[in-house]
Amino acid sequence: MPDSTAGFFYAFAAILIFAAVMVITAKNPVHAALYLVLSFFSAAAIWLLLEAEFLAITLVLVYVGAVMVLFLFVVMMVDLDLDKMRKGFWTNLRVALPVGLLIVFEMGAILFRSFQIPASAAPPVTEVSNTKALGKILYTDYVFAFEIAAVILLVAIVAAIALTLRRRKDSRHQDPGEQVKVMAKDRLRMVRFKDGKPE
After folding, report:
1. Residues near 153 by Cβ (< 8 Å), separated by ≥ 6?
2. Are 41 and 12 in the same domain?
3. Do 133 and 97 share a structural domain?
4. DSSP reduced 3-state for 163
5. CA within 20 to 30 Å of 199's CA: 25, 75, 151, 184, which one?
6. Are 80 and 103 in contact (CB under 8 A)?
């Protein structure tokens, strides 16, 4: 590993450790979410240094976007006062501004380093791309672990829906269990009339 790459690696690793510690120690959930975004960007920068471009882009696109969805679930479940949060929007600037500047620095450093690599030091071009090699290993050597992770994610999705589902008491709904228990005699009742009155 060249000296410049090692320097970038230690810088991004230090930022990643700092951001991860702040995620679990920040009292404000908005600040914790911002530090989590910073940690994801730092991990993506380290993966770019290791030439794992697919993992880095996937981390940014999937997990950085999922942070906002996670924060939305927190707001829905805790029932926070959104008007009060909007009033204090600019108070989060003291955390958001340094986090944003660090993310810009990381992305700029990665791009600057990629333009500075001479052609002779570039890795040899292979016929198999990183994405294809990763998919081949994932679906052959680690297929069981991949399926277990898929099942865990499915359970997490179902649990999140069950926790956030709120049923209104005044709304009408059907109960399939009660419908199945109904017998034919409960559905139809024969009434005989005599002189306009039931017997």
Report:
1. none
2. yes
3. no
4. helix
5. 184
6. no
Q: How many domains does the chain have?
A: 2
In a domain, 180, yes or no: no
- Residue 123 phi/psi, 5° resolution? -65, 150
pTM: 0.51
Residue 191: half-sphere exposure toward Cβ, Cα within 13 Å: 6
- CB neighbour class for 39 (10 Å; exposed up to 12, middle 13-18, buried from 19): buried
Pair 49, 133 in one domain: no
Torsion of CA 44, 131, 62, 37, to 10 degrees: 0
Q: Which candidate, 60, 37, 38, places its Cα nearest to that of 48?
A: 60
**Euclidean distance between CA atoms 33 and 64, whole angstroms:** 10
Dist CA 123 CA 2 (whole Å): 13
Residue 37 structural domain: 1-123
Please check whether residues 94 and 141 belong to one and the same domain: no
- Let me know if residue 194 belongs to a domain: no
Closest CA to 64 of 43, 47, 89: 43
| Helix ranges (DSSP H) in 52-175 | 53-58, 65-78, 82-87, 93-116, 130-138, 143-164
pLDDT reported for residue 151: 94
Q: Please tell me the distance from the alpha carbon of residue 64 to that of residue 107, in angstroms, as a whole number.
A: 15
